[in-house]
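Narrative of accomplishments. A recurring question from our advisory board has been how the design workflow behaves on a single, concrete structure rather than in aggregate. To address it, we present the structure tokens for one chain from the evaluation set, followed by the sequence designed for it. No filtering or post-editing was applied between the two.
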């Protein structure tokens, strides 16, 4: 696939969940062969905006691979509004968002707006930007666009290689 695949969205990088029980979800995916997972506990997003307003979002986060797809688990700890908090507060389960890779975050925003989706959350930091979008009339699976900085590409490559060579030991790793 090319970066212009999937009707202009880009290539899918990840499938993300915002489970009610973070540790149980992590155990579930490990039992299914996903991993190893790289976790950050009480991680605070830099420069985060929800519905245009600055927010402080602190979360437990885990990233790991299941085949060639990156799985992300998020459990928001802070009470500020966010795309994650809205999901949790509505009691939703299942896939929270599909993450697309992009080298053109401005173009992705323009494409998203042209399709009538609302950009609801934006995060900037460490040389990259991400944003989330959903339909204004009802919340279905959210779309995330992830700007692929060299740092992010290197991290994804390292985690994918760790999955390919993983023997099942040390399934949860710090970092």
């Amino acid at each position: 696939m090319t970066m212009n695949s999937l009707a202009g969205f880009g290539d899918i990088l990840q499938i993300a969940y915002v489970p009610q029980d973070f540790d149980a979800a992590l155990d579930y995916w490990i039992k299914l062969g996903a991993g190893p997972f790289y976790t950050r506990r009480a991680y605070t997003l830099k420069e985060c905006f929800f519905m245009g307003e600055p927010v402080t979002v602190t979360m437990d986060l885990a990233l790991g691979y299941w085949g060639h797809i990156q799985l992300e688990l998020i459990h928001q700890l802070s009470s500020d509004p966010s795309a994650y908090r809205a999901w949790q507060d509505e009691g939703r389960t299942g896939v929270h968002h599909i993450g697309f890779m992009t080298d053109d975050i401005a173009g992705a925003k323009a494409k998203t707006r042209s399709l009538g989706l609302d950009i609801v959350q934006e995060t900037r930091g460490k040389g990259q930007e991400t944003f989330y979008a959903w339909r204004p009339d009802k919340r279905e699976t959210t779309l995330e666009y992830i700007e692929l900085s060299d740092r992010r590409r290197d991290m994804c490559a390292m985690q994918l290689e760790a999955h390919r060579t993983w023997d099942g030991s040390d399934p949860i790793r710090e970092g």
